[in-house]
Amino acid sequence: MEQRLANTWHMTINEKKFIESALSKNIRVDGRSPVDYRQLTIKFGREDGSSEVQLGETHVIGLVSGQIVQPYRDRPNEGTLAIFTEFSPMADPAFEPGRPGEFAIELGRLIDRGLRESRAVDMESLCIVAGKSVWAIRVDLHILDNGGNLIDTANIAALAALLTYRKPECTLGGENGQDVVVHDPEVREPLPLIIHHMPVAVTFAFFNEGDAMVIDPTHKEEAIMGGRMTATLNSNGDVCAVQKAGGDGVSLSVITHCLRLAALKAVDITSKIKNAVDSYNTARALRKVKRHNALVAPDITVPDSVMKGNQIGQLAEHQAQKFKEESTKTFDTETVVGIPKETVLFNKKNINFIRKDSDSFIGGPSNWDPYSQSIPPTFVRSSQIFPGLHSSS
Amino acid sequence: MEVETSSSSTASLVDKAVVPGDIVLDLTSMSDQTIRLGAGLRQYSDVLSVVKAGKLKFKKPNKYWVESSQKRYAPSVEDTVLGIVVDARADNFLVDIKGPTLAFLPVLAFEGGTRRNIPKFEIGTLLYVRVVKANSCMNPELSCTDASGKAAEFGSLKEGYMFDTSTGLARMLLSSPTCPILEALGRKLSYEIAVGLNGRVWVNASSPSTVILVSNAIMRSEFLSDVQQKILVEKLMQRVQG
């Protein structure tokens, strides 16, 4: 009992009364007006599909990963999208390690609803072979610091991560032309996901039985609010999801007012995300150019015959030809001898599996991991080691 | 060998940033002196070494300590802190002072306190208190009186607004001469302030907008120099008046 009291965050009567009385005069404790958003910062990691979003003091990391699995029986030509949340006790002492709390589940479901049921991510383009193999996209959201309004921040983190994620290109090949070949990202440029529109969540908090309304509440405001409403809209003003779970009742006019405000904010946030993603893509393209130069070292790619002749003129000619190839970006697997062609490898077990499943397909995901060959075990995130810590949505 | 080099550079370490493992003093050359150690320093046989990152401070004649800024508070005797009443028991109030454990405030630790006039505090009351016992393995003990048993401004704080900052900022606000930000704000506005060494600050004024202005100015001043603090206040004032 005492330990629990020591671990929770306490709010004084003074703060509660002050925030309420200031709000009745349309003043907020951080100096914002009731319809102002806090400062939004979007950053990206070095890897594709990782984003870091800060909204005021709130801090969320989004990570997207993909895996090839068998599709669900009722949707044989669609991939899957799943959202997982992790609430670290470092973010807020109220978050308990281990089991996900009520709020963790609500947050995961709300983002899931906004992204999936509005069909923001094209599911059919995730299909490789209908009924056999599709991409399963997984979005992990890690809450690093809780400064209030986790829903909006986590939603932006998920969107930013999805927009920068690239799945390795897949083709059919092998002996019978039916095996899935996953191409190495070095050989074939990975493809981004197809995202039709960006549903942005905007959260409102209500105080004093609906008298006062604020957008983007801080954690102190969340502690004393009477009710909360989250509206998920895209930049066209289409409502994708609305969540109002209990709390103070509000009138219809307030809700329409909120939706109108949310539409404005959604346009604003969408443009911020797009700008951040564009600058990331530019930086990524620049990085790519550098990496190719470093990879194609002369002693690796020059064929043996030229080396035997050992003529400087020939070597220079070959170099020039190679640079031409680079500039036109015609990167063929045959010319690059130095790069291991492990992409076309497909182990025996899986070939057997595919042959067998045509007559005895039992549904359920396969356990084949496209990364296990090229990624060392240290890259496997803790989230995959301790699946019990996550709330599946 | 290491001791020799460090003792030669001891003088330069005062008022500098130090990290755990730094050797502050060599005690072999000063056998007949008494040295008083504060937070963040520890004696290992013949040397004094640092156990906490921060700034090494020295006060004549013989006091050494390390000053650092953190979000959590380590209770120490005679600190004045702001606490929140979390629970009321028969003998004690349980008070949250941002420490590792809750602190006990005995119901008799008030001016003229007897069994008959036990004060009534609601859960969530903000108190200005003094730490009287701080031992590891024990909950710290608080008191609402000064050393002579007088109330001396201790007790509950009514109204106003309380916010959390770091311990470093709280110490900066309490330093003398008066911290430039408080002085600059005080020239233009009238407000009441209570600063606890545990990094809690309480501000009260006649209008809510003044409270918000003062508290935001304080929160943004932590890493500003004296001149920058004055400029910040001037800018804020222009925005409010303009």
UniProtKB/TrEMBL annotation, chain A:
Superkingdom of this protein's organism: Eukaryota
Name under which the protein is recorded: Protein ECERIFERUM 7
Subcellular location: Cytoplasm; Nucleus
Family matches, as InterPro entries: ExoRNase_PH_dom1 (IPR001247), ExoRNase_PH_dom2 (IPR015847), ExoRNase_PH_dom2_sf (IPR036345), Exosome_comp_Rrp42_subfam (IPR050590), PNPase/RNase_PH_dom_sf (IPR027408), Ribosomal_Su5_D2-typ_SF (IPR020568), Rrp45 (IPR033100)
Span of domain Exoribonuclease phosphorolytic: 37-168, 197-262
Keywords from the named record: Cytoplasm, Nucleus, RNA-binding
Pfam families, per the entry: RNase_PH, RNase_PH_C
GO biological process, one term: U4 snRNA 3'-end processing
Gene Ontology molecular function terms on file: mRNA 3'-UTR AU-rich region binding
Organism name: Dendrobium catenatum
A Gene Ontology term for the protein's cellular component: nuclear exosome (RNase complex)
UniProt family annotation: Belongs to the RNase PH family.
From TrEMBL, chain B:
Broad class of the protein's primary localization: cytoplasm
Entry keywords, A to Z: Cytoplasm, Exosome, Nucleus, RNA-binding, rRNA processing
Subcellular location(s) per record: Cytoplasm; Nucleus, Nucleolus
CDD domains: KH-I_Rrp40, S1_Rrp40
Residue span(s) of domain Exosome complex exonuclease Rrp40 N-terminal: 35-72
GO cellular component terms given for this protein: cytoplasmic exosome (RNase complex); nuclear exosome (RNase complex); nucleolus
SUPFAM superfamilies: Eukaryotic type KH-domain (KH-domain type I) (SSF54791), Nucleic acid-binding proteins (SSF50249), Ribosomal L27 protein-like (SSF110324)
Any one GO MF annotation of this record: RNA binding
Family (UniProt): Belongs to the RRP40 family.
PANTHER family given in the database record: EXOSOME COMPLEX COMPONENT RRP40 (PTHR21321:SF1), PNAS-3 RELATED (PTHR21321)
Protein name per UniProt: Ribosomal RNA-processing protein 40
Organism: Dendrobium catenatum
